[in-house]
Amino acid sequence: MAAATRxxxxxxxxxLKTALARGRKPIHAPTALANAFNLKWHGPSVTVQAAQKxxxxxxxxxxxxxxxxxxxxxxxxQWLRYGIPVQRxxxxxxxxxxxxxxxxxxxxxxxxxxxxxxxxxxxxMTESRRELVxxxxxxxxxxxxxxxx
Length: 149
Fold this sequence. Notes:
Elements: H1 6-21, H2 30-40, H3 48-56, H4 63-73, H5 77-82, E1 86-87, H6 99-102, H7 104-107, H8 113-123, H9 127-146, E2 147-148
Parallel strand pairs: 1-2
Helix pairs in contact: 2-3
């Protein structure tokens, strides 16, 4: 396997942070990540330094470790490793869509009156509240990045 490029490492890091933040017990620190990982992993322990490198985007774990991370966080392996959305299981009843699908209406220039009202309300908020909305939308949109219809 060829070594991951800087861009691949950084993109993986962003996906990993998203997956870790969405869990029942969100993980943000390298120590917490290493501890949680080592509880699921049946190989040599992962160090806090290794977890820090994964989160910083300076290193990527081996494929078998990425598989454990995907299971640990409940995200699709293909999405975590490569950023490629996957089919949601039918039993899930999911109706996720790709980011491209989510923005298709914007590409057509079809902004609705409801969207304009929402934008007006957003612009009327303080900067701290706008930041909260941005974070919420980012969290909600992350699910559409993982799954396809």
